[in-house]
Amino acid sequence: MEIREINLEKEWEDFIGVVRPDSFLHSWAWGKFNNASGTKVFNLGVYDENELVAVALILKITAKRGAFLFCPHGPLIRKAENVVEVIKVLREYLAGLARIERCAFVRLSPLLIKNPDNERIFTDLGFRQAPVHMMHPELSWILDVTPPEDALLMAMRKTTRYCIRKAEKDGVETVVSADPADVDVFWDIYKATVDRQNFTPFSRNYLRSEFEMFIKNDGARLFFAKYNNEVVAAAFIVFYKDSAFYHHGASIHKYPKITAPYLLQWSVIREARKRGCKYYNFWGVVPEEKKNHPWSGLSLFKRGFGGSESEYLHAKDLVITPKYWLNFLVETVRKKKRRL
Known about the structure:
The protein has helices spanning 9-19, 28-36, 83-100, 116-124, 149-155, 158-169, 183-197, 204-215, 260-274, 296-303, 324-337, and strands at 2-5, 40-48, 51-63, 66-71, 76-77, 105-108, 128-129, 139-144, 173-177, 220-227, 230-240, 243-251, 279-284, 308-311, 316-319. It is α+β, with helices and mostly antiparallel strands. It folds into two domains: 2-133 and 313-337, Gcn5-related N-acetyltransferase (GNAT) (Aminopeptidase, 3-Layer(aba) Sandwich), CATH 3.40.630; 139-311, Gcn5-related N-acetyltransferase (GNAT) (Aminopeptidase). The strands form two sheets. Strands 1, 2, 3, 4, 5, 6, 7 and 15 form an eight-stranded mixed beta sheet that branches. It has a seven-stranded mixed beta sheet with strand order 9-10-11-12-13-8-14. Strand 3 (51-63) and strand 4 form a beta hairpin. Helix 2 crosses helix 8 (204-215) and helix 6 (158-169) packs across helix 9. It is globular. It starts with a strand and ends with a helix.
């Protein structure tokens, strides 16, 4: 096997179409978005006798605590029998690239199902568990949206179904926008959510740039729920291949008895169906037993719409230089402070 950079969007996207990952973080658009934001991007293809068998989108992340190479929700590998060899070849290539780019470590967040065999692949190749707190979802909640609407409603938690109907009766309206200018409207609600829940936000420019990149191929929409002509809930949705992804969400608590977020999500599900999507990916959730986790309430909300979870391997780190341990310490402390 050998590794070469891929320069053609069609070659990359054709491969993604075959693999069909539960993520958009290996899309060509995600690489272009990161590159436009100032991040160095490597679109790597793994070839076996000129046959493309895997792809790896690699981002060079630069932080105060040091730089590292990051593969978000990847690599993506076509055949299960190639996994070990692909990871082995990538390990050697990325270790060399990390030294050239002066990076302290390599981090992979693979979309491989969490099980002992897959864990052993990385352990045997010298990777260690990353201290990171879900840099990208490792436990996703996914709903099959192909059944009829009545069937989808009946499969929901009773409370969820009631809240959807209540919001309709209370006069909540939903609006869908493809206008990048409406990112400013989303930002106002998003900022209120950040202040309330105390998490590290993305910047307004980051959100707008992401939306503008995906809207080029009709791959993004902003959904707003309005009550008394005021936006009270919002969702930033990415559409990619056969799935819709709930990438960013926000709401205000001005009207605690108004169940607008439930109707908003139902609106997204219905739009996904109209587009011919097979799945709605609610993105990350936390395990049900973690009742004290800051995201447990949001996770309960997502699970109420029906669906099932997919659990992937925890992020894996390959140590390149001793500077890695500073990053390890910072992320470990941060994780404890945020009770994650």
